[in-house]
Amino acid sequence: MKSNLLTYKGYHGSVEPSLREKHLKGRVLFIHEDVCYQSQTLDGIRKAFENAIDDYLARCLATNKVPERPFRGQFNVRVTPDLHKSAALRAEQERTSLNSIVVNALRAYLSEATVNPQTPSASFT
Length: 125
Fold this sequence. Notes:
Pfam families: HicB (PF05534)
InterPro entries: Arc_rbn_hlx_hlx, Ribbon_hlx_hlx, Uncharacterised_HicB
Number of strands: 5
Helix content: 40-55%
Largest sheet: 5 strands, antiparallel
Oligomer: single chain
Number of domains: 2
Structural class: alpha+beta
Protein name: Toxin-antitoxin system HicB family antitoxin
Radius of gyration: 19 Å
Mean pLDDT: 90
């Protein structure tokens, strides 16, 4: 799967142009801490991203803080009460859990994406 995301040491970062400042900028995704970076070039944005990750990890080490890790395997899903009820009743009938239903739905969704990929995009990874 191609994407416009940078990847380094298990972290992912965005890349977007800043038209006003005339450079590329990005931020580390999927963590709460605000870790940003910028560069004038595509090669430079990758290096700036990697430096931002290294700096973030060094700051955490220096302050005895546990670095945030993206994708702990847990997330909240918000649905309508009717959908929640229907899913819970069906899970009960099938003697399974809501968690299993969501996991199976995500697997089916991701399998469908590999069978029917969208238009390829540029990749920086």
